[in-house]
Amino acid sequence: MSELGRQTLKNVRATRHAYSMLETLFLACLIYLFITRSKKSKKNMRPRTLDGELKELIARSNENTGIALEIKRYLLSIAISNENHEEKFSDAHIAKAQEILDHAGPSAFYWMSDIAAQLAQLAASQINGVATNVNIELGESATAKDIIRVVVRP
């Protein structure tokens, strides 16, 4: 075999070896991507059965009710603090508000703003002499805590 033939044979073997290394690397990358994709998709996967969807709806509803009750308790604690002439914007109240906001996210801020708007509407109705459902439920006398209990219903 001539020198040129030997050199060509070496080049062919080297090229085959390089291709097999690239194939191995490519397959390893594909397997890695497939494994990590399946882990991510399991977290975001929605239930495929009616029972699974029902469980998800119940869990979401329970979480929203829990957040609403937490906000209601917070508003009642603010009302009690105001009755007792405690310090406004105390560190404890601010920390609790931050905890609720961290837990519930922007929806908690919106919900509290909606409650404030309802209470402002109630005050405007009282000033203008318009009867409301709060008047009917509480009668002639009411405290801030009673009004919060009537207005804030999760």
From TrEMBL:
Residue intervals passing through the bilayer: 18-35
Keywords attached to this entry: Membrane, Transmembrane, Transmembrane helix
Keyword Transmembrane annotated: yes
Protein name: Unannotated protein
Organism expressing this protein natively: freshwater metagenome
